[in-house]
Request: fold
Amino acid sequence: MHITTWNKQTIRAYEISGSALDPAARVTSNILTVEKLLSPLSREETKVVRCLGLNYSDHAAETNMAKPAVGFSAPILFYKPLASMIGPNAPIFIPKVAQPVEEHLSDYEVELTIVIGKAAKDVTEADALDYVLGYTGANDVSFRKHQLTTSQWGFSKGFDNTTPLGPVLVSNNAVSNPQDIPLTCTLNGKVLQDGNTSDQIFNVRQTVSFLSQGTTLEPGSVILTGTPKGVGFARKPAVVLKNGDDCRVWLGNGIGTLVNPVIEEGRYQAKL
Reply:
């Protein structure tokens, strides 16, 4: 779907009555022409954005960073502000505070993303998937110079308009096994990441269960689940996101391709 809209081809879809987060929402018989593909969740619908770091062993190894120890019960966690979230086709905006990009190491990260559909608190791993509304994709754009100067990653991964989400939300009922979803990141036509969620250290059930302990995950809570190997700053020479780039993340099981151009603040805008 997203490639179709990126290529400015016509898409028609059935109209949904109500929000995706409303259990009473239904698909109507009205067929509409899609003028613009938006994020699966608007900022107003999103309650919180929580993220896992170093959740793939191969990614931890390539960055020379310690993954969670065997037997340790907690993943590495951070938050993103809602202002960082953007949808399909929207430009990834690199602010002046993260320039020049060769110094600040602007980077891509393809991630499977969970959307919570009903309030979850103290849920077990066995029941965790019952609280998942569906799955989408995300690009956890990161700025490594800022990230590596502190143990808290929220600042380096939370600049305005830097985190694409989408292109669609696939129902939990349509994904039989969230631990068998392929995912890739392609930059300017070259595949740089090629992984599978089967390699996650903390799987989807464990992640939802852990984050719900003592804490209510409200409907509309978004959870990014980490990225596989192949990130730019770990390459030699390093690969960075720069003005005019075309960055695409793809996930299987019907989630599809999320395309976003890159713009550096103060430079010529990317062509949309």
Remarks:
- The helical segments are 2-6, 57-63, 101-104, 144-147, 204-211.
- Residues 204-211 form the longest helix (8 residues).
- The chain is about 10% helix and 30% strand.
